[in-house]
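Hi R.,

Here's the chain you asked about this morning:
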Amino acid sequence: MPSLKYLLKRIATMSYKGMFDRINIVHDKTKKPKFIIFCDMVWCGIRYGAGYVDYDVIGFYKLTSKQRKTMLTRGINNKFVKELNEKDYWHLFNNKNEFNEMFSEFLKREWIYPVSKKKEETLKWMSKHKVFFAKPNDGQCGKNIEKIDTSEWKDNLENIYDYLLENKLELLEEPVIQCDAMNKLNPSSVNTTRMVSVMNNKGEVTILATFSRIGNGKVVDNFNSGGMTAKIDVDTGKIIEDAVNKEGKIFSEHPITGTTINGFQIPYWNEAKEMVKQAAKKSIHVRYVGWDVGMSVNGPVLIEGNQFPGHDIYQVAEKIGPNDIGILPEFKKAMK
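And the predicted structure, written out as tokens:
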């Protein structure tokens, strides 16, 4: 059960419009009376730390009490972050330039932070990289990332430079050239693998969960930006289920490429796990991290790390059957 302090903070800051929108969504799905849904939603918040989005996305409306106890909810996830990740060090993950500096050996691509460079250095970098990605330094969920092709600007680097500054696109990165195997799954974006790690007090790193994040026509693959996700077996690197997007639509095949998703083998799997473990050991003050790994033509590369890993992709209502349980028991075991 979440702490009283957490509950009071949630009550004070939550969007009540968002809550009632979710009640309407669940009502449309289940045909249950809205008042019953409201009461149960409040109970799940108090008892399990489940936010109103959890109630819908994870499917608390259809779970037994036994199943509910096994779900990693927003409240429980927040507790893990608070216990394992020292807030004074969050900036190393929140600021992309600091992250790139700290984990440079795992990036395997060139990048530049124009804010800390002279204009001439940035222009020279852009002249070398005709196509690159421009990102907000503190962006999340793949939002506001732009792919810049200098030829579309008639190679007018001065105009590009001004545009980047005006739109606060403060980090420039050389594109990751995705390997052929992952292109067969989806070529529109680098389809990253989310690998969640925990380091215990002895410095031992466990990879708790792994999920494929698959793009669907956009240049980003994020679950919260139109992408889809599917669970990967940690040991073998094979996708072991159909994919699902945030709206709950199931995909047995990729809608663009037609590639079968369940059973798809992620390449460079053992190398990727070893890279994540090495990266995790460099982060002794932030011990619970969601790493995004791309599979390039030269092997696995680190895209970014999240010191506040999202929990919604682990348990999606449409994937949870009457006898299934959540991922919380696995997390608790690794924490010990």
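The CA atoms of residues 131 and 149 lie 4 Å apart.

Let me know if you need anything else.
M.
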